[in-house]
Structure formats: C-alpha cells, structure tokens
Amino acid sequence: MTPTAHDSRLVLSIGRLLRAGLITSTACLACGLVLMPVHPAAGSWLLAAGIAVLIASPAARVALSIVEYVLQRDWMFAGLTALVLIELAASVVAAFVFNRRL
C-alpha cells in the first residue's frame, strides 16, 4: 500500500507539532533551571510549564489527527481518534479529582 498525499501531510504535520512541543518544553525547562537559583518562583513556574507542554504534546497530536481525518472525510478514523482524545481528557479529569481526595 503506497502512502497518499494526505498520509504524507499528516505525518509532516504531526512531526512539526511534536518538534514544536519538544523545543518549547526544552526551552521552558532550561530557562527554569537557570532561573531557579535567582528567582525560585519564576523558575518553578517555567519548570512546571515545560513539563506540562511535554505531557500535552501527545494529546495535541491526537487532536491534530482528528482534524486531518475530518479534512480527509475519513469518518471512521476521525471517530475512533475522537474517542481516544475523550479517554485522554477523562484521565486528566480523573487525575485532578482523585488528587484532591488524597
């Protein structure tokens, strides 16, 4: 099975998205580490932001896949990918709910 133009576009888009997330996360983490001794509050905030961006990158990849599948009118994959995103969102909500109870 040969890849189509849509498949290539999806792969390139996902690669760009993940690369941007990794670069942003790395920049936040590096700046946070540098600022931590000088200004602990700002350093802590940047470290948390860097980790959040790194964790959110795969979820953003799933959201981008939904958009691409809808543009391709591939409704089955769009629906299945939407279910994956819903499960990811539910796990984040559950983590916040159970974290407050502990």
Question: Would you write up a description of this structure?
Answer:
This protein is mostly helical and 102 residues long. It has one domain (5-101). Helices cover 88% and strands 0% of the residues. It is built from 3 helices and no strands. The protein has helices at 5-35, 40-71, 75-101. α1 runs antiparallel to α2 (40-71) and α2 packs antiparallel against α3. It starts with a helix and ends with a helix. 8% of the residues are buried. The model has no long low-confidence stretch (mean pLDDT 90).
Top keywords for this entry?
102 residues; mainly alpha
Question: Biggest β-sheet, characterized?
Answer: none
Show unreliable segments: none
Helix content: over 70%
Work out the helix count: 3
Distance between the termini: 50 Å
Strand portion, in percent? under 5%
**What gyration radius follows from the Cα positions, in whole Å?**
18 Å
Broad structural category: mainly alpha
- The number of domains is 1
Inertia-based shape: flat
Arithmetic mean of pLDDT: 90
Number of strand segments: 0
The secondary-structure element order is HHH
Could you give a short description of this structure?
The protein is an all-alpha fold. The chain has helices at 5-35, 40-71, 75-101. 88% of the residues lie in helices and 0% in strands.
